[in-house]
Each structure stands twice: as structure tokens, then as C-alpha cells.
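Because showing beats explaining, we let one protein speak, sequence and C-alpha cells together, and leave readers to judge.
___
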Amino acid sequence: MKYKILLNLLAISTFMNAVDTIPMPPMIPSLDTKSNNISNKKSTIPKSCELIPPMVIFLPPPMQVELSKCKNELNKPKKEFVEKQLTKLFKKKVKVTKIEIVKKFNQLYKVTYNGGVILVNKTVDGFIEQ
């Protein structure tokens, strides 16, 4: 009986020591006025940002640039999709020759087609003639 109790205590203490060595995940940065230049008023953070963690909203500048490049490449529409959408918009057959990412903009693409050059977004539901 004594051995069972001692064995249980040994197992519990071993388990507790093992749990103590697990590192804690990093903390989310706080939204204080000194470190992030954000006031504590609710009006400073838009309602659309409430569900997004602050560590995603306030990325360090190098990561922000890389994220922008990544999203531009990731969301670049395919040639067939652009041709289909522009055919719907112009109500005539469109042949796309080139799709390029517009520098210094997020998810804006320069499309060269048989009728000229236009700027479109990733969904190609509207355009700007150049």
C-alpha cells in the first residue's frame, strides 16, 4: 500500500516537473500609447480590425513589404480568368497578352490585351483605362 502511494506521488511530481518545462507562447503586443502610438480610444481602431490580432495589424516594416509582395503574387489573376471576365465586361472577345503587378500598389494588376492596357484588381470586376 505504501509503495502504491509513493509510486503515485513520484509519478505526479515527475509529471508536474515535465509540465513546468514547456515554454509559453509569445505574448501578443499590447496596444498602449507609448509603444505603438495608438490612443486607448475605441475610435482609433476601426471596427473591421477588432478580430485581427495586433501582432498581425502592426507588422514590422520589413515583414509588411514581404507580405505585400507575397499577396500580390498570390492573388495575381490567371490569364484565362481575366479573358473571361473582360469578355463579360466589354461584351466582345478579349485576348490577354500580359499581366503585370503594378509596383507600389497592393493587388493592382496591369493587363495588356488586344484592345489596349487597363488596370484591374484581383477579381477583375472593374477596370481603369490607361
